Protein backbone atom coordinates (compact mmCIF):
# COMPACT_ATOMS: atom_id res chain seq x y z
CA UNK A 1 0.00 0.00 0.00
CA UNK A 2 1.22 3.49 -0.91
CA UNK A 3 0.45 6.78 0.82
CA UNK A 4 -1.05 9.69 -1.12
CA UNK A 5 -1.43 13.33 -0.11
CA UNK A 6 -4.57 15.02 -1.41
CA UNK A 7 -6.00 18.53 -1.71
CA UNK A 8 -9.77 18.63 -2.14
CA UNK A 9 -12.93 20.65 -1.52
CA UNK A 10 -15.83 19.59 0.68
CA UNK A 11 -19.56 20.16 0.02
CA UNK A 12 -19.26 23.72 1.33
CA UNK A 13 -16.36 24.54 -0.99
CA UNK A 14 -13.84 24.55 1.87
CA UNK A 15 -10.28 23.43 1.08
CA UNK A 16 -9.35 20.16 2.80
CA UNK A 17 -5.97 18.38 2.87
CA UNK A 18 -5.11 14.93 4.12
CA UNK A 19 -3.55 11.54 3.46
CA UNK A 20 -4.90 8.17 2.32
CA UNK A 21 -3.39 4.70 1.91
CA UNK A 22 -4.20 3.01 -1.40
CA UNK A 23 -2.85 0.48 -3.89
CA UNK A 24 -2.90 2.92 -6.82
CA UNK A 25 -3.64 6.52 -7.81
CA UNK A 26 -7.14 5.54 -9.02
CA UNK A 27 -7.86 3.73 -5.75
CA UNK A 28 -6.68 6.78 -3.77
CA UNK A 29 -8.95 9.09 -5.81
CA UNK A 30 -11.91 6.79 -5.13
CA UNK A 31 -11.20 6.83 -1.38
CA UNK A 32 -11.11 10.63 -1.38
CA UNK A 33 -14.37 10.82 -3.37
CA UNK A 34 -15.94 8.36 -0.90
CA UNK A 35 -15.39 11.04 1.73
CA UNK A 36 -17.72 13.34 -0.26
CA UNK A 37 -14.76 15.45 -1.42
CA UNK A 38 -13.89 16.85 -4.85
CA UNK A 39 -10.27 16.01 -5.69
CA UNK A 40 -8.06 18.96 -6.67
CA UNK A 41 -4.67 17.25 -6.54
CA UNK A 42 -3.33 13.86 -5.53
CA UNK A 43 0.37 13.05 -5.15
CA UNK A 44 2.20 9.90 -4.09
CA UNK A 45 4.55 10.19 -1.11
CA UNK A 46 8.13 8.99 -1.59
CA UNK A 47 9.31 6.68 1.15
CA UNK A 48 12.37 7.82 3.07
CA UNK A 49 13.67 7.70 6.60
CA UNK A 50 12.37 11.25 7.08
CA UNK A 51 8.85 10.45 5.85
CA UNK A 52 8.80 7.28 7.95
CA UNK A 53 9.53 9.18 11.16
CA UNK A 54 7.21 11.99 10.10
CA UNK A 55 4.39 9.50 9.59
CA UNK A 56 5.25 7.72 12.83
CA UNK A 57 4.98 11.04 14.67
CA UNK A 58 1.53 11.62 13.19
CA UNK A 59 0.13 8.33 14.44
CA UNK A 60 -2.91 8.59 16.67
CA UNK A 61 -2.21 7.02 20.06
CA UNK A 62 -4.60 5.33 22.46
CA UNK A 63 -4.26 8.34 24.74
CA UNK A 64 -5.39 10.64 21.91
CA UNK A 65 -8.52 8.53 21.35
CA UNK A 66 -9.29 8.44 25.07
CA UNK A 67 -8.92 12.22 25.43
CA UNK A 68 -11.05 12.84 22.32
CA UNK A 69 -13.81 10.50 23.54
CA UNK A 70 -13.97 12.11 26.98
CA UNK A 71 -14.12 15.64 25.55
CA UNK A 72 -16.64 14.61 22.89
CA UNK A 73 -18.84 12.92 25.52
CA UNK A 74 -18.75 16.03 27.71
CA UNK A 75 -19.82 18.27 24.81
CA UNK A 76 -22.62 15.97 23.63
CA UNK A 77 -23.91 15.63 27.21
CA UNK A 78 -23.89 19.44 27.47
CA UNK A 79 -26.26 19.61 24.49
CA UNK A 80 -23.86 20.72 21.74
CA UNK A 81 -24.58 19.36 18.23
CA UNK A 82 -22.22 16.71 16.86
CA UNK A 83 -20.88 18.99 14.09
CA UNK A 84 -20.15 21.86 16.47
CA UNK A 85 -18.46 19.50 18.95
CA UNK A 86 -16.27 18.01 16.21
CA UNK A 87 -15.38 21.48 14.92
CA UNK A 88 -14.25 22.62 18.38
CA UNK A 89 -12.32 19.41 19.05
CA UNK A 90 -10.57 19.62 15.67
CA UNK A 91 -9.11 23.00 16.63
CA UNK A 92 -8.10 21.85 20.13
CA UNK A 93 -6.70 18.41 19.24
CA UNK A 94 -3.12 17.38 18.52
CA UNK A 95 -1.96 17.48 14.88
CA UNK A 96 -2.23 13.67 14.79
CA UNK A 97 -6.00 13.92 15.37
CA UNK A 98 -6.79 17.05 13.34
CA UNK A 99 -6.70 15.32 9.94
CA UNK A 100 -8.96 12.50 11.17
CA UNK A 101 -11.45 14.91 12.75
CA UNK A 102 -11.50 17.09 9.62
CA UNK A 103 -12.55 14.08 7.55
CA UNK A 104 -15.17 12.99 10.13
CA UNK A 105 -16.61 16.51 10.33
CA UNK A 106 -16.81 16.74 6.54
CA UNK A 107 -18.61 13.38 6.33
CA UNK A 108 -21.12 14.23 9.07
CA UNK A 109 -21.85 17.64 7.53
CA UNK A 110 -22.54 15.93 4.19
CA UNK A 111 -25.17 13.68 5.79
CA UNK A 112 -23.30 10.55 6.86
CA UNK A 113 -23.80 9.06 10.31
CA UNK A 114 -21.00 9.35 12.84
CA UNK A 115 -20.42 5.58 12.89
CA UNK A 116 -20.15 5.45 9.07
CA UNK A 117 -17.54 8.19 9.13
CA UNK A 118 -15.57 6.51 11.93
CA UNK A 119 -15.53 3.23 9.97
CA UNK A 120 -13.39 4.95 7.29
CA UNK A 121 -10.57 5.12 9.85
CA UNK A 122 -10.11 1.48 10.95
CA UNK A 123 -6.53 2.12 12.13
CA UNK A 124 -7.75 4.85 14.48
CA UNK A 125 -11.10 3.55 15.72
CA UNK A 126 -11.52 -0.12 16.62
CA UNK A 127 -14.52 -2.23 15.51
CA UNK A 128 -15.70 -2.16 19.14
CA UNK A 129 -15.64 1.64 19.19
CA UNK A 130 -17.56 1.90 15.91
CA UNK A 131 -20.16 -0.72 16.93
CA UNK A 132 -20.85 1.11 20.20
CA UNK A 133 -21.28 4.47 18.45
CA UNK A 134 -23.63 2.81 15.95
CA UNK A 135 -25.68 1.30 18.79
CA UNK A 136 -25.84 4.70 20.51
CA UNK A 137 -27.07 6.34 17.32
CA UNK A 138 -29.74 3.68 16.76
CA UNK A 139 -31.00 3.83 20.34
CA UNK A 140 -30.82 7.62 20.61
CA UNK A 141 -28.45 7.34 23.57
CA UNK A 142 -25.20 8.53 21.98
CA UNK A 143 -24.46 10.75 24.99
CA UNK A 144 -24.72 7.81 27.40
CA UNK A 145 -22.68 5.50 25.16
CA UNK A 146 -19.91 8.08 24.73
CA UNK A 147 -19.69 8.56 28.50
CA UNK A 148 -19.49 4.81 29.10
CA UNK A 149 -16.97 4.44 26.28
CA UNK A 150 -14.78 7.21 27.72
CA UNK A 151 -14.92 5.58 31.18
CA UNK A 152 -13.96 2.22 29.67
CA UNK A 153 -11.06 3.65 27.64
CA UNK A 154 -9.70 5.46 30.71
CA UNK A 155 -9.84 2.24 32.76
CA UNK A 156 -8.16 0.37 29.92
CA UNK A 157 -5.37 2.98 29.64
CA UNK A 158 -4.83 2.91 33.41
CA UNK A 159 -4.73 -0.90 33.48
CA UNK A 160 -2.27 -1.14 30.58
CA UNK A 161 -0.13 1.55 32.23
CA UNK A 162 0.05 -0.51 35.43
CA UNK A 163 1.13 -3.65 33.58
CA UNK A 164 3.73 -1.85 31.46
CA UNK A 165 5.02 0.15 34.43
CA UNK A 166 5.55 -3.00 36.49
CA UNK A 167 7.40 -4.79 33.69
CA UNK A 168 9.60 -1.93 32.49
CA UNK A 169 12.10 -2.12 35.41
CA UNK A 170 13.16 -5.76 34.79
CA UNK A 171 13.36 -5.09 31.04
CA UNK A 172 15.60 -2.04 31.54
CA UNK A 173 17.88 -4.02 33.89
CA UNK A 174 18.22 -6.90 31.39
CA UNK A 175 18.98 -4.50 28.51
CA UNK A 176 21.52 -2.68 30.70
CA UNK A 177 23.22 -5.98 31.59
CA UNK A 178 23.41 -6.96 27.92
CA UNK A 179 24.91 -3.59 26.88
CA UNK A 180 27.52 -3.60 29.67
CA UNK A 181 28.46 -7.22 28.92
CA UNK A 182 28.81 -6.43 25.20
CA UNK A 183 31.09 -3.43 25.91
CA UNK A 184 33.23 -5.46 28.31
CA UNK A 185 33.68 -8.34 25.87
CA UNK A 186 34.36 -6.19 22.79
CA UNK A 187 36.54 -3.42 24.26
CA UNK A 188 37.85 -4.25 27.75
CA UNK A 189 38.74 -7.94 27.57
CA UNK A 190 40.95 -7.60 24.43
CA UNK A 191 43.06 -4.98 26.27
CA UNK A 192 43.50 -7.32 29.22
CA UNK A 193 44.36 -10.19 26.87
CA UNK A 194 47.26 -8.13 25.48
CA UNK A 195 48.47 -7.49 29.04
CA UNK A 196 48.35 -11.18 29.95
CA UNK A 197 50.22 -12.09 26.74
CA UNK A 198 53.01 -9.55 27.44
CA UNK A 199 53.64 -10.99 30.90
CA UNK A 200 53.17 -14.61 29.79
CA UNK A 201 50.64 -15.14 32.58
CA UNK A 202 49.16 -18.55 33.37
CA UNK A 203 45.49 -18.33 32.46
CA UNK A 204 42.91 -20.23 34.53
CA UNK A 205 39.94 -21.89 32.83
CA UNK A 206 37.41 -19.02 33.47
CA UNK A 207 39.81 -16.55 31.85
CA UNK A 208 40.37 -18.82 28.83
CA UNK A 209 36.59 -19.11 28.39
CA UNK A 210 36.14 -15.33 28.65
CA UNK A 211 38.95 -14.67 26.15
CA UNK A 212 37.52 -17.26 23.73
CA UNK A 213 34.10 -15.56 23.91
CA UNK A 214 35.73 -12.15 23.46
CA UNK A 215 37.80 -13.28 20.44
CA UNK A 216 34.71 -14.75 18.80
CA UNK A 217 32.62 -11.60 19.41
CA UNK A 218 35.39 -9.24 18.21
CA UNK A 219 35.72 -11.18 14.94
CA UNK A 220 32.06 -11.97 14.32
CA UNK A 221 30.00 -9.39 16.25
CA UNK A 222 28.32 -8.03 13.08
CA UNK A 223 27.28 -11.58 12.15
CA UNK A 224 26.00 -12.19 15.70
CA UNK A 225 23.89 -9.00 15.61
CA UNK A 226 22.55 -9.87 12.15
CA UNK A 227 21.75 -13.39 13.35
CA UNK A 228 19.82 -12.01 16.33
CA UNK A 229 17.84 -9.60 14.12
CA UNK A 230 17.29 -12.39 11.59
CA UNK A 231 15.98 -14.73 14.29
CA UNK A 232 13.62 -12.02 15.58
CA UNK A 233 12.31 -11.33 12.05
CA UNK A 234 11.88 -15.05 11.34
CA UNK A 235 9.91 -15.37 14.57
CA UNK A 236 7.72 -12.41 13.58
CA UNK A 237 7.10 -13.93 10.13
CA UNK A 238 6.28 -17.31 11.69
CA UNK A 239 3.93 -15.65 14.19
CA UNK A 240 2.02 -14.00 11.33
CA UNK A 241 1.10 -17.43 9.96
CA UNK A 242 -2.06 -19.09 11.27
CA UNK A 243 -0.17 -22.08 12.70
CA UNK A 244 2.62 -19.93 14.14
CA UNK A 245 0.21 -17.58 15.88
CA UNK A 246 -1.67 -20.45 17.50
CA UNK A 247 1.51 -22.29 18.58
CA UNK A 248 3.11 -19.19 20.11
CA UNK A 249 -0.10 -18.16 21.89
CA UNK A 250 -0.48 -21.69 23.28
CA UNK A 251 3.14 -21.62 24.47
CA UNK A 252 2.66 -18.17 26.02
CA UNK A 253 -0.29 -19.42 28.09
CA UNK A 254 1.85 -22.32 29.41
CA UNK A 255 4.75 -20.18 30.69
CA UNK A 256 4.61 -20.03 34.52
CA UNK A 257 3.36 -16.69 35.93
CA UNK A 258 3.70 -14.92 32.54
CA UNK A 259 1.10 -17.21 30.95
CA UNK A 260 -1.37 -16.67 33.79
CA UNK A 261 -0.79 -12.91 33.60
CA UNK A 262 -1.39 -12.88 29.84
CA UNK A 263 -4.62 -14.87 30.24
CA UNK A 264 -5.92 -12.56 32.98
CA UNK A 265 -5.12 -9.48 30.90
CA UNK A 266 -6.97 -10.90 27.87
CA UNK A 267 -9.97 -11.98 29.97
CA UNK A 268 -10.13 -8.53 31.56
CA UNK A 269 -10.29 -7.01 28.08
CA UNK A 270 -12.94 -9.50 26.88
CA UNK A 271 -15.27 -9.18 29.89
CA UNK A 272 -14.95 -5.38 30.03
CA UNK A 273 -15.65 -5.01 26.30
CA UNK A 274 -18.62 -7.39 26.44
CA UNK A 275 -20.04 -5.56 29.46
CA UNK A 276 -19.78 -2.24 27.65
CA UNK A 277 -21.41 -3.61 24.50
CA UNK A 278 -24.30 -5.34 26.27
CA UNK A 279 -24.97 -2.21 28.32
CA UNK A 280 -24.99 -0.09 25.16
CA UNK A 281 -27.56 -2.22 23.36
CA UNK A 282 -25.29 -4.39 21.23
CA UNK A 283 -26.52 -7.99 20.99
CA UNK A 284 -24.53 -10.81 22.60
CA UNK A 285 -23.96 -12.39 19.19
CA UNK A 286 -22.61 -9.19 17.64
CA UNK A 287 -20.56 -8.49 20.77
CA UNK A 288 -18.90 -11.92 20.56
CA UNK A 289 -18.18 -11.47 16.86
CA UNK A 290 -16.61 -8.02 17.33
CA UNK A 291 -14.64 -8.98 20.46
CA UNK A 292 -13.19 -12.06 18.72
CA UNK A 293 -11.74 -9.75 16.07
CA UNK A 294 -10.01 -7.35 18.46
CA UNK A 295 -8.77 -9.66 21.23
CA UNK A 296 -5.01 -10.14 21.12
CA UNK A 297 -4.82 -13.91 21.61
CA UNK A 298 -5.85 -16.45 18.95
CA UNK A 299 -6.83 -19.11 21.54
CA UNK A 300 -9.41 -16.79 23.13
CA UNK A 301 -10.38 -15.38 19.72
CA UNK A 302 -11.19 -18.84 18.31
CA UNK A 303 -13.11 -19.71 21.49
CA UNK A 304 -15.21 -16.54 21.11
CA UNK A 305 -15.94 -17.34 17.44
CA UNK A 306 -17.05 -20.87 18.32
CA UNK A 307 -19.14 -19.52 21.21
CA UNK A 308 -20.86 -17.12 18.80
CA UNK A 309 -21.80 -20.08 16.57
CA UNK A 310 -23.27 -21.95 19.54
CA UNK A 311 -25.22 -18.90 20.73
CA UNK A 312 -26.56 -18.45 17.19
CA UNK A 313 -27.86 -22.04 17.36
CA UNK A 314 -29.72 -21.22 20.58
CA UNK A 315 -27.30 -22.43 23.26
CA UNK A 316 -26.76 -20.26 26.39
CA UNK A 317 -23.56 -18.21 26.47
CA UNK A 318 -22.52 -19.88 29.74
CA UNK A 319 -22.73 -23.31 28.07
CA UNK A 320 -20.68 -22.06 25.10
CA UNK A 321 -17.95 -20.65 27.36
CA UNK A 322 -17.89 -23.79 29.53
CA UNK A 323 -16.94 -25.82 26.44
CA UNK A 324 -13.72 -23.83 26.10
CA UNK A 325 -11.89 -24.35 29.38
CA UNK A 326 -8.57 -23.69 27.59
CA UNK A 327 -9.64 -20.06 27.17
CA UNK A 328 -12.30 -19.32 29.79
CA UNK A 329 -12.04 -20.24 33.49
CA UNK A 330 -14.92 -21.90 35.36
CA UNK A 331 -15.61 -18.65 37.23
CA UNK A 332 -16.44 -16.80 34.00
CA UNK A 333 -18.96 -19.36 32.72
CA UNK A 334 -20.60 -19.61 36.15
CA UNK A 335 -20.93 -15.84 36.52
CA UNK A 336 -22.36 -15.56 33.00
CA UNK A 337 -24.91 -18.26 33.89
CA UNK A 338 -25.98 -16.09 36.84
CA UNK A 339 -26.21 -13.07 34.54
CA UNK A 340 -28.38 -14.98 32.06
CA UNK A 341 -30.70 -16.24 34.81
CA UNK A 342 -31.12 -12.83 36.48
CA UNK A 343 -31.09 -10.69 33.33
CA UNK A 344 -28.18 -8.64 34.71
CA UNK A 345 -25.54 -9.64 32.19
CA UNK A 346 -23.96 -6.18 31.98
CA UNK A 347 -23.56 -5.91 35.76
CA UNK A 348 -22.17 -9.44 36.06
CA UNK A 349 -19.64 -8.94 33.25
CA UNK A 350 -18.53 -5.66 34.83
CA UNK A 351 -17.91 -7.43 38.16
CA UNK A 352 -16.05 -10.26 36.42
CA UNK A 353 -13.81 -7.78 34.58
CA UNK A 354 -13.01 -6.15 37.94
CA UNK A 355 -12.12 -9.55 39.43
CA UNK A 356 -9.80 -10.33 36.51
CA UNK A 357 -8.22 -6.88 36.76
CA UNK A 358 -7.47 -7.39 40.47
CA UNK A 359 -6.03 -10.85 39.72
CA UNK A 360 -3.92 -9.33 36.92
CA UNK A 361 -2.50 -6.78 39.36
CA UNK A 362 -1.61 -9.62 41.72
CA UNK A 363 0.05 -11.58 38.90
CA UNK A 364 2.07 -8.50 37.90
CA UNK A 365 3.29 -8.12 41.48
CA UNK A 366 4.11 -11.84 41.64
CA UNK A 367 6.00 -11.60 38.35
CA UNK A 368 8.09 -8.61 39.43
CA UNK A 369 8.72 -10.26 42.83
CA UNK A 370 9.98 -13.40 41.06
CA UNK A 371 11.93 -11.68 38.29
CA UNK A 372 13.85 -9.12 40.35
CA UNK A 373 15.68 -11.68 42.58
CA UNK A 374 16.33 -13.85 39.50
CA UNK A 375 17.87 -10.89 37.68
CA UNK A 376 20.03 -10.12 40.73
CA UNK A 377 21.23 -13.75 40.86
CA UNK A 378 22.07 -13.79 37.14
CA UNK A 379 23.76 -10.39 37.45
CA UNK A 380 25.74 -11.63 40.46
CA UNK A 381 26.89 -14.76 38.64
CA UNK A 382 27.89 -12.71 35.59
CA UNK A 383 29.82 -10.17 37.66
CA UNK A 384 31.50 -12.93 39.71
CA UNK A 385 32.56 -14.74 36.52
CA UNK A 386 34.00 -11.51 35.04
CA UNK A 387 35.83 -10.61 38.26
CA UNK A 388 37.30 -14.10 38.71
CA UNK A 389 38.33 -14.27 35.04
CA UNK A 390 40.05 -10.87 35.19
CA UNK A 391 41.53 -10.90 38.72
CA UNK A 392 42.94 -14.47 38.87
CA UNK A 393 45.63 -13.95 36.18
CA UNK A 394 46.64 -10.65 37.81
CA UNK A 395 46.86 -12.42 41.19
CA UNK A 396 49.01 -15.17 39.64
CA UNK A 397 51.32 -12.51 38.16
CA UNK A 398 51.82 -10.80 41.54
CA UNK A 399 52.71 -14.14 43.12
CA UNK A 400 55.47 -14.61 40.51
CA UNK A 401 57.12 -11.41 41.68
Automatic annotation (TrEMBL):
<keyword id="KW-0812">Transmembrane</keyword>
<feature type="domain" description="Type II secretion system protein GspF">
    <location>
        <begin position="68"/>
        <end position="190"/>
    </location>
</feature>
<dbReference type="GO" id="GO:0005886">
    <property type="term" value="C:plasma membrane"/>
</dbReference>
<protein>
    <recommendedName>
        <fullName>Type II secretion system protein GspF domain-containing protein</fullName>
    </recommendedName>
</protein>
<dbReference type="InterPro" id="IPR003004">
    <property type="entry name" value="GspF/PilC"/>
</dbReference>
<keyword id="KW-0997">Cell inner membrane</keyword>
<keyword id="KW-0472">Membrane</keyword>
<dbReference type="InterPro" id="IPR042094">
    <property type="entry name" value="T2SS_GspF_sf"/>
</dbReference>
<feature type="transmembrane region" description="Helical">
    <location>
        <begin position="167"/>
        <end position="189"/>
    </location>
</feature>
<feature type="domain" description="Type II secretion system protein GspF">
    <location>
        <begin position="271"/>
        <end position="393"/>
    </location>
</feature>
<dbReference type="GO" id="GO:0015628">
    <property type="term" value="P:protein secretion by the type II secretion system"/>
</dbReference>
<dbReference type="InterPro" id="IPR018076">
    <property type="entry name" value="T2SS_GspF_dom"/>
</dbReference>
<feature type="transmembrane region" description="Helical">
    <location>
        <begin position="209"/>
        <end position="235"/>
    </location>
</feature>
<feature type="transmembrane region" description="Helical">
    <location>
        <begin position="374"/>
        <end position="395"/>
    </location>
</feature>
<keyword id="KW-1003">Cell membrane</keyword>
<comment type="similarity">
    <text>Belongs to the GSP F family.</text>
</comment>
<dbReference type="Pfam" id="PF00482">
    <property type="entry name" value="T2SSF"/>
</dbReference>
<keyword id="KW-1133">Transmembrane helix</keyword>
